[in-house]
Automatic annotation (TrEMBL):
Organism: Amblyomma triste
Domain Prokaryotic-type class I peptide chain release factors residue range list: 73-89
Any Gene Ontology biological process: mitochondrial translational termination
Full protein name: Large ribosomal subunit protein mL62
Top-level EC class as recorded in UniProt: hydrolase
Amino acid sequence: MHASLMSTMSVRRLVLGTVLGHRRQVDYLWAHCHGLSTGRHTAEPPAPGRQEDQDTTFQGHIPEGELEISYSRSSGPGGQNVNKVNSKVEIRFHLETASWIPAAGRERLKAQWGHLVNKRGQLVLSCEEQRSQHANTRICLEQLRALVFEACRPPSAGPDAATQQLHERRRARASARRVEEKRARSHWRRLMQPPRIF
């Protein structure tokens, strides 16, 4: 009887400890999922302007749902495979309405890569380098990502006035040095000529 009572109490302690342990874990996970802290220190507030940075810079994500991806027969390498599989990939999207690209990036894309934009305002990329459709799709997406990154890169600031003046002085000195060397060579050639006999 005594042993049975002890075993029952042990089971109750075990169950209670397990429940409390799970409850602590749930409380801890809930607090962290909601940005709270279970200790003395509170969670840091989100940095201001982070959303604005996301709106003005390209993060590298390309929403494939906004792309028109089509496949056709390739004229590249592959032997008989090119006659059986639509391995050529063509990706197009409307540039003006591409909200995942910042406005400045869209303008630079239009200015730098206008030959890739068709009459309907769609930027078109194609790839048929590989034999597989999947590989060509991946290459095409990487090309698009590289183009957008390049277009969204902020233009480098030019040199300041002091640096420009320094470059101009260096160019002037180099030009004067070339003129002096040319005169010296001309004078040396005249000295090396044999004397004329009349």
